[in-house]
Amino acid sequence: MKLTEEENEMLEGKYGEAMQTAMELLVAVGECYGAERMIPVASAHLSCANPVTAGKGGTIFIKNMAKGGGRFVIPTTTNPTSLDPWAWREMGFSQDIYQENAALSETLAGMGGYLCNTCIPYLIGHAPRLREHVAWAESSAIIYANAVLGARTNREGGPSALAAGLTGRVPAYGYHLDENRHGSIKIRVNAKLNAETEYATLGYFAGKIAQDKVPILTGIPPSVSQDELKCLGAALATSGSAALFHVVGVTPEAPTEEMATGFKKIGPSDTFEFNLTELKKTEESISRIGPEEADLVVLGCPHPSINQIKRYAEAFSGRRVKSKVEIWILTSHLIKKYAEDIGYAAPLKSAGVRLAANTCPSPMPREFFIKRGYRGAATDSPKMVYYISATKGIPCYYGSLEKFIDWVTDKG
Amino acid sequence: MKEIIIKGHKVAKGKAQGEALVSKTSISFLGGVNPETGVVVEEGHELNGKSITDKILIFPVGKGSTAGSYQLYELAYYKKAPKAIINIQADPVVAVGAIISDIPMVDKLDQNPVEIIKTGDTLEVDADQGIVTVRSKSK
Questions:
Q1: How many Å apart are CA A401 and CA A302, to the nearest integer?
Q2: pLDDT tens sequence across A80-93
Q3: pTM to 2 decimals?
Q4: Architecture of domain B2-136 in CATH?
Q5: Most-buried pick from A162, A172, B40, B129 (CB within 10 A)?
């Protein structure tokens, strides 16, 4: 790789041990992918910012980087952590995990991190602009940044996003290069979709077909909302490994189909249709249990926006969570505060729905779920199904809230 | 004793000497290897039950989650890491793991290491020069 003078100095250790390790790591990744140079990035978003997904290894590594003088040189945000730092006791978390979690957060804050602890940094003041290069981890945030905002990021992992935050650089390959951003597979949407969950189902279908290819979607109306695109992308990045999609006539790199594909023709063998039959089939394929078996409900994944919280508040208004059921809505503490201030949190609270902040089941310890003894979960997000079933071993029901709200709450 | 010198490409700096442990299939460090014992625990893996500790570990390419880099670091923290790693083609997860854990690593050798090197061969890895010296007992 060709490095600038400053990058070479980082590699030689002129700026300290942590910067040196970070640059070595980025050069190695660049060489794996045949990158020719580094590019400056405007921000980094870290996954593995909690003791569960970082593990002991990641926790020690981050501490050693801090000791080695590591300080973030660009705005560096963090993904959800293992618990809500305000409500952990009431939710049944142990003192030990609280302390481990707090210690890692303190280390990252000491390095200059923006401890926002959410998977939607782009909704709370950290949205990259069109064509801006960033180094983000967290597949749902990556795909939103690339597809909806038109920023440029690869699928960074915990260590590489950390290194990017410390150096302000990433190797130039993959989604950073224009030629790799064109769609090569087409999904024709032939159904009128309502609500985020149906867009999530479409995303799950598209990701399964596309795998690591960039899909273009046609037939989605220009009125599609930011929340719907966010849910579509998160599901797409769950069933596949693509980090970008284009919605013709909607997303910034797809004003026309030709521009979305880079003027390449997509043949009939790479064209797929999504109609009401596919919608139903896909939705049913995600569930393993019926809604009557759920004693845990987790809503909103990625972290819900203020609009989504408003709709949840309306749905739960005048209802009461059944005695053997827990219902969680997890989001950023900023959005939670906003919801409290403008009156959307109160109806949730009186229904017995827990609105918690800065956490997610993925970084929660598996032992927590075993100890609580949940038998089944219901959720309106395919990504949440993956986390709860694959990483915590709890079978899930998937569908929109209206499909299962009567199973988990009582009226009046 | 037969000596072969294979040339390759440095992924992570350093030198090491030791006994080869060869796997023809990929290895995932997240969930595939117990970081506190260094024993391969992946069900059905050809190295299942074997320790990778202090071996020169040869396998085609890494697989699995990016948190695998941190698992390799955890192995090194418990002093259960391999002495060096040789891949046909490095992937970012293992490459990053080797660099942060100070495990010498090479790839892109001019002969296929998984075929040429046998478990039990004595190896010298000079990652800085990108050279692997193989001393084979057989033949």
A1: 15
A2: 999 999 999 999 99
A3: 0.92
A4: 3-Layer(bba) Sandwich (3.50)
A5: A162
